[in-house]
Amino acid sequence: MRTLALVTGRPTLTQRRRDATRLDIARTAAALFAEQGAEATTAEEIAAAAGISLRTFYRYFSVKEDAVAPLLAAGGQRWVDLLAASPTDLPLREALERSAVESLTPADDEAVEAMHWTRSLLRDPRLDGTWQRVHAGSEERLRSVLAARCPDGADPLEIRLAAAAATTAIRVALEQWAGSDAPVAGPGSPRDLGARCMRELTAGLRLLT
Q1: Per-position b or e across 80-118, b if 16+ CB within 10 A of its CB
Q2: What's in the keyword line of the UniProt record (predicted)?
């Protein structure tokens, strides 16, 4: 028998609860990492602060560094979701930039706080591996959305190049911002840098012309 998730395309209640728990742990870990660094923070401390057992922590994450992956991945997931929901008659290059800019624009105080956590996390060398895995996952999701928007017969290599260039634009923008003292909004912000990097890195791609 097919599950509700397969019938409706929506995650089940159990999966939504698991995702919520993962995000709660991620926020707790991010706060601790921002305060004392990933190296000085233990999995035991994260579990205690999150109100879960250490055993439960390891059911969700195999290493402490990956505990912040859901938080780092949230922005990329929002970007891909916005792109997937954008009008199909909008030129693909414009749709990519618009959705990227919107995803990099904090909508409320919670999103602003998440941006500041992201800055701290990207400055921590112990989290480089986690960040690279998050980036790779975002690229894969974007490639699927791009393939769905392209006409039949589109070159798979061009789709892959477009996904790689676009996700690299966002990664570079966030890393550049994280290494600076630029604000969350305005000149030098993730939104500002994201738009610039997106235009520069996708300029020569035939798929987006």
Answers
A1: bebbbebeeeeebbebbbbbbbbbbebeeeeeeebbebb
A2: DNA-binding, Transcription, Transcription regulation
Distance of alpha carbon 189 from the chain centroid: 16
Residue that terminates a domain, selected from 67, 90, 113: 67
2 domain residue, yes or no? no
Q: Which residue has the tokens 């929901």?
A: 85
Q: 59 and 125 share a domain?
A: no
CA-based torsion, 30, 193, 209, 160: positive or negative: negative
pLDDT digits (tens, 9 = 90+) for 124-160: 999 999 999 999 999 999 999 999 998 888 999 999 9
Residue 172 makes CB contacts below 8 A (sequence gap 6+) with 193, 197, 201
Residues 42 and 98 in one domain: no
Residues 78 and 157 in one domain: yes
Please, are residues 200 and 180 in contact by the beta-carbon 8 Å criterion?
Answer: no
